[in-house]
Design goal:
heterodimer; A: 467 residues; mainly alpha; two-stranded antiparallel sheet; two-stranded antiparallel ribbon; B: 339 residues; Formate dehydrogenase/DMSO reductase fold; 14 helices
């Protein structure tokens, strides 16, 4: 029934689906883990109960998101083999140890100390509990380090040789791990994760303010989120620019696709809007700003930028996907910076916490980080096609010897499963958000030893200075 | 370039490490999958809450051993990984889907109320059951041999469907159920513990039966296994394996009925270790039976060396803080929402 389907395309769709689904959760939990560590630190430092109450609300959301990240991540560790066995065989010598280190240095750390974070509240000292939160936060960053190193090596491979048997052999591990695009990708992704979390938190806080609920908590949350928007969102623009220049150096075809630039030219215009037509090798309905692309990429109004026609047709990425994903990502980034600027103005007018339209604005932007992260990954992953290891191995040659029909069936199974699980996960997270912090029952107990509601603590917490 | 090839038998060390990681996975995730298998048979909802709480702090770390075994295979024996994953495409994907359903159930179950909690009870049970059964199928398929041409899998997508693989799948369901029930004897009290004892004695007989069938059928089916086990002097060296297994069975049976709490679990682990050793011995020297040996599949010595350094330092650390977590959450589990 599916035998006229292309196994390469199906394997790509399946991998794109499972990895896109997965990245949503790390993008959220990397930021959330660090934020939880900050919250707990503030709580231990100031003794203000409001931080503990916010922590206890968000740690539950963290647990749900982390659980979904784990189960979708386990799938990926097998898919390199089930979908891309040729790739696994050829690159195993180089990429295998990086993934092995990710498991040994990060996964066990996160999984073990997450248990302490969630269930250890009455079993360990506050300091040990805080240490566990920090360890989990560091674990998420270590995990990002290794997996982004592996991904970046596939984008900018170096430190290896190709043997007579066609297999890759490592020649310099430091060159493999710290390959040219890795530092940029790592910084860009980590900051993206922080911003994603900040905007979710801002959205939730705005929801509370709008409804007049949990106002004390919401002010803290919105304040902290806006600090991220004010300072970190502009930083991301700089990091993104540096990452883009790095891409221009190593993967110019990707940049040409991002800019929708077909002809190599001096003083290349920036295309704000267009519909790139791969077949006709031109842009339809283009709106251009003269010379801007040359200025951004070469820092010179008349700098030369390579166009897509410099590459043979079978070495060009799908232009429209890359072009549009890039615009979505940059557009959201700009909205985030704008949010920080608005917040700054409102702050000085003392209207940050009671401006209705800004609350709607933040609620609307709550999911924006996820969209930007996905769009960014679409740019970098689709933009390196047709290669799986840039310039060395083509994606189409690397697929497993599995019939198209089975890939189609398993893809369907993944879509149904993930839709169900994702739907339920989002439902429970929204439920937790709706419930809000510091409900009448104590969140934690040593394995279910439920503490009675601490009324005195809640009342004292209003005043602020209660330890 | 970092290379310990000249003074270490890297391929052999990694063959041992992969088997060790897989053994740790089978024991650790084995008991929490076993709890999932027994889940709907528990007498009350309160029992089910206790069962869930007894494993909630551990399941995530336990499952990480599977990722280590998978990732370790990719790193140390990429050829084996590249052949086995397509060969086992269907059972692996179904196993992963099972693990998804049971994994999210931990988080969702306590957040759901009323009827929707039932959905996650079943997701937990059927997810655990499916994952276990297909892990057994994978094992049964691998020991029977994989069709390979050159460096690729050359069989069909459903080569794994045969009576033997399905029997191993069912056997593993009973095996994990034994680990799960003896774990619950250790970690619960009262009604739940009483029920766990009965379940343990019930599945014990089946586990014995299946171990006997597999132990007899392997040398009967495969002359290489036969000569490995029954040639002299191997026979005498290996004799303690079946002997000790039988002894441990007797211990579990006695301890379950004498009211002991910890020993049944320890001896169940013993049974798993011995059966696993029996299988590992029969696999020697194959990593993809009977096409690729562990030496043929070994990654470049530079790659095996790099990961070995980390493993030497990190594995004891991982085992250390895993032990710390088990120590921290010692004692009996309660039925109340844990957090």
């Amino acid at each position: 029934m599916f035998d006229n389907l292309d196994p390469v395309l199906l394997a790509r769709i399946q991998f794109a689906f499972t990895v896109s689904f997965h990245i949503i959760f790390p993008a959220f939990t990397i930021g959330l883990a660090s934020w939880l560590a900050v919250l707990e630190w503030r709580w231990l430092r100031t003794g203000k109960q409001v931080y503990a109450e916010i922590y206890k609300m968000w740690v539950k959301i963290f647990a749900v998101a982390f659980g979904m990240g784990v189960v979708s991540g386990v799938v990926l560790s097998f898919q390199f083999g089930t979908n891309w066995s040729e790739f696994a065989d050829r690159t195993g010598n180089v990429l295998g140890p990086l993934l092995g280190y990710e498991v040994l240095t990060a996964f066990f750390l996160e999984a073990s100390f997450l248990g302490v974070m969630l269930f250890g509240w009455n079993r360990v000292s506050p300091r040990m509990h805080f240490a566990s939160t920090v360890i989990v936060a560091v674990g998420t960053l270590i995990s990002a380090f290794w997996i982004l190193s592996a991904n970046s090596w596939m984008q900018t491979p170096q430190g290896f040789r190709t043997g007579e048997d066609g297999l890759f052999y490592p020649t310099d591990w430091l060159a493999v791990i710290f390959n040219p695009s890795f530092p940029y990708r790592f910084a860009h992704m980590t900051v993206a994760a922080y911003l994603t979390t900040a905007f979710v938190v801002a959205g939730v806080a705005s929801f509370y303010l709008w409804r007049g609920r949990h106002v004390k908590h919401a002010r803290v949350m919105l304040g902290m989120a806006m600090i991220m928007a004010i300072f970190v969102a502009p930083t991301q623009l700089v990091l993104g620019d540096l990452h883009g220049l790095n891409t221009l150096e190593h993967q110019p075809a990707k940049v040409a696709a991002m800019e929708g630039l077909w002809e190599t030219q001096k003083g290349a215009p920036m295309t704000v809007f267009a519909w790139p037509d791969q077949e006709a090798e031109t842009n339809r309905w283009a709106i251009e700003i003269p010379k801007l692309t040359s200025l951004i990429l070469t820092h010179d109004l008349d700098g030369e930028v390579k166009g897509l026609k410099d590459w043979p047709k079978d070495e060009r990425p799908p232009v429209a996907w890359v072009f549009w994903s890039f615009r979505v990502m940059v557009g959201i980034g700009m909205l985030m910076i704008l949010t920080g600027a608005i917040a700054l103005v409102l702050h000085f007018r003392k209207r940050l916490f009671d401006t209705r339209w800004f609350q709607f604005w933040c609620m609307a932007l709550a999911p924006s980080g996820f969209i930007a992260v996905l769009a960014g990954w679409f740019v970098t992953e689709i933009g390196r096609q047709p290669y799986i290891v840039y310039g060395v191995l083509r994606t189409s040659d690397m697929v497993s010897p599995v019939a198209a029909s089975y890939i189609a069936i398993s893809l369907t199974a993944f879509v149904i499963t993930y839709a169900f699980v994702f739907g339920a996960g989002v439902y429970y997270i929204l439920h937790l958000i709706n419930k809000g912090p510091a409900s009448d029952e104590e969140a934690y107990g040593a394995h279910g030893v439920k503490k009675p509601p601490i009324v005195t603590e809640l009342v004292a917490g209003e005043g602020g200075g209660h330890a | 370039m970092l290379n310990f090839e000249s003074f270490l038998d890297l391929a052999l060390i990694w063959y041992g490490l992969i088997f060790t990681a897989l053994l740790l996975y089978v024991i650790l995730d084995g008991f929490d999958l076993g709890v999932g298998i027994l889940f709907p048979f528990a007498p009350t909802d309160q029992c089910r809450d206790r069962m869930m709480n007894s494993i909630a702090p551990f399941w995530d770390g336990n499952e990480t051993w599977l990722v280590l075994a998978g990732g370790g295979l990719f790193a140390a024996f990429p050829l084996a990984y590249a052949i086995l994953m397509p060969a086992l495409y269907v059972p692996i994907i179904v196993m992963l889907l099972g693990l998804i359903f049971r994994g999210v159930a931990f988080e969702f179950r306590f957040k759901a109320s009323g009827k929707s909690r039932r959905i996650w009870d079943y997701a937990f049970h059927f997810g655990s059951l499916t994952a276990t059964f297909f892990q057994g199928v994978v094992l049964g398929t691998v020991v029977q041999g994989i069709t390979v041409e050159g460096r690729r899998y050359a069989g069909g997508a459903f080569d794994w469907v045969d009576a033997y693989s399905i029997m191993v799948g069912i056997a593993l369901v009973f095996g994990y159920a034994l680990l799960g029930s003896t774990w619950l004897v250790m970690k619960t009290e009262g009604e739940t513990q009483q029920w766990a004892r009965q379940s343990g004695s019930y599945v014990l007989g089946y586990v014995g039966l299946f171990i006997a069938v597999v132990s007899i059928s392997m040398p009967v089916m495969d002359p290489a296994v036969r000569s490995l086990w029954f040639s002299l002097p191997n026979f005498f060296y290996l004799l303690p394996v079946p002997f000790l297994t039988a002894l441990f069975f007797a211990f579990i049976w006695r301890d379950l009925h004498k009211g002991r709490e910890v020993r049944p679990f320890i001896f169940s682990i013993g049974v798993f270790v011995l059966s696993y050793m029996g299988l590992a011995i029969s696999m020697w020297p194959w990593i993809v039976p009977t096409a690729v040996t562990f030496r043929q599949a070994a990654a470049a010595p530079e790659s095996q060396s790099l990961l070995l350094i980390g493993t030497v330092f990190l594995l004891p650390l991982v085992l250390g803080y895993t032990a710390y977590c088990y120590y921290l959450f010692r004692g009996k589990a309660s039925h109340e929402s844990a957090y």
